[in-house]
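As the work plan foresaw, the team has encoded backbone shapes as discrete tokens. One protein thus recorded appears below exactly as we store it.

:::
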Amino acid sequence: MARNRFRAGIETEQSSAQGQWVGRAETKALAVLCMTFFLVALDNTIINVALPSLQRSLGSSTTALQWITDAYTTAFAGLILVGGHLADRLGRREVLQSGLVAFVLGSVVALFAHSSDVVIIGRLIMGTGAALAVPASLSMLIDVFPAPRQRQTAIAGWTASAGLGVALGPLVGGALLTRYWWGSIFLANIAVAGLSLAASGLLLPKSPSHRLHSLDWLGSMLSVVALSCLVAGIIQAPNWGWLDVRTLALFAIALVAGLLFVRRAKTAESGIVHFSVFKSRHFSLSSLAMGAIYLGIFGFLFLMTQFLQSYLGYSPLRAGVAFLPAAFAVVVGTGIARALAPRVGPRVALAAGLVLMVAAIGQELFFTTATSYAGVAGILITGGLSMGIVLTVGTDEVMGSLAHRETGIGAAINVAAMEVGGALGVALFGSVFNSEYSRQLTPAAAVLPKALRHLATGSITAGLAIAQHLAGDLRSLLVLHVRSGFMDGFALAGWIGVAAAAAAALCVVALMPSRSVALRGETE
């Protein structure tokens, strides 16, 4: 019935040759798809402001808190290719709905948890749901908006919903924690996912599947092992050490599984990925650009959260409000992308967005102990514009370069590049920051007992708390070193984002075709 209503809505509309909206049916369908991506992006950042509350209520260790955050990312990135494969084979609406059900289930598990381990299990289930829902939502968007100009407008809205989710996560979490307990963030997930699930049954058409092609179970398993070990290694490397045997073992497993996956994809008749998609420079360079954007944005946000709450002493709610400029900038960036890309082409548009990211993170290099919120607001605005432009143009080029039967797996590769980029950004920014912070603080902390010395050199929050229990000049000296070490580490970490965005910009300028495959319907 939903499919008939959807078709009826399309048939009653006028021509869309000029790229205008074609009807309420499609607008409602787009709202559901955007809501799904908004939910998944929101959960990437909403959990951060709840970590102190979880630690107090559940007695969570630092390692447990890390995995409460990272379990979601690991499951999301590890299963994303399987999610796209299933969407292409079993039907996109059905897989999207399955993902939303898993998201609700994981949120319920976390909501009623009485230990950190159960919260981690819930987050793993939620990450699995995200891996099913996101590629299905993007590939279904192509079903709903097959015309290039309509699709470009729809992708701009879909991209903006992700940017809003990332930026509003701390605000929503802070507002809930101001009045309610830590479980309220999972209640918010249940509400949004439940609404999306109900709306999907009413407003989304049943998309075609390709059941004539069998599921590639071996390729799916290899992709899960390769991506999960890669992301887990990236996440754990700052704690274990990049040359620690455990880190190297994870990377080695990821490499072996990845090579076997490539071999399987090249030989299997109905493999999970057709590597011909990577021959398109529209596809591969757009994915590279979006991965670089996520690396810079997520690395910066990881440290900025600590800057606002630990360095400036903001409450969770005030810290969430501080992210609002980024949310507005992402929306403006998507509008700029819609106006800019058709006129100048994807090469110039993507390069411009990446240069904006270089300019944004480049401001971080000049951070000092005198830096205030005003100093980071410019980064949020410039970075938000960059994110809106690159994700909108890049996603449109990626999806425009794919055959219809490959849109699910293509969307999955697209999102996987962003997730791996985000995980790498957090790991690299965190690793560089921790090394510099510890190096600067070690001499001043030498007068402390060994146990306190370890705490002070490992966390700005611990360093400032310990300083409050000291007296006179010793207290002032430790506070000075904690603050200067934090800001110097923050500034040094910025080189990671600058280098990644600059390298991606150079690749785009040198290799990206100037004509848009998304609007012209042709590959180069």
